Amino acid sequence: MRQxxxxxxxxxxxxxSRDNWWLVLALVIMVLLFISSSQTYxxxxxxxxxxxxxxxxxxxxxxxxxxxxxxxxxxxxxxSGYFKFIEFFIRKGAHFGSYFLIGLGGYMGYKxxxxxxxxxxxxxxxxxxxxxxxxxxxxxxxGGRTPLFQDxxxxxxxxxxAIILAWLFTKFWQHRSKKAA
Length: 181
What we know:
Blueprint: H1 2-37, H2 41-44, H3 47-53, H4 60-63, E1 67-70, E2 73-76, H5 77-80, H6 82-110, H7 117-140, H8 149-180
Antiparallel strand pairs: 1-2
């Protein structure tokens, strides 16, 4: 009987340790976002890199047909040029992706601490969304940056997507494990 309890304790420690690594992932992303928000657009633009590595402007003809409005401004190659157009998608992808990782790390890190799955999902999503709002506020204090509510929505969507996918994957994995046993 004592051996069983010891194995459960060791298993619990391993799970807690794994959970902590997920939280470390989320924290590292949050620190990187804070640093990024402290930089002006000029300090972090990827246009010079894109000009160097995409000098032949691949898929320009295909991408030239894409045009839409974001925050009341036209996003197209015609309005901003090829490299700024590509950078727009990189920057918005970084918004979605970084908050995806925060949502994933938060959910995986807290799912064993907060025993109610729905509550875990809501708390992690609200925390990620709140951090996104604070990050946009931080950008407002940085010269040459424009805080956007639409970016908070994009960030919140990235976090929510990760939380839902992690929950689905966890459910699938648990169901598969039960079938194998």
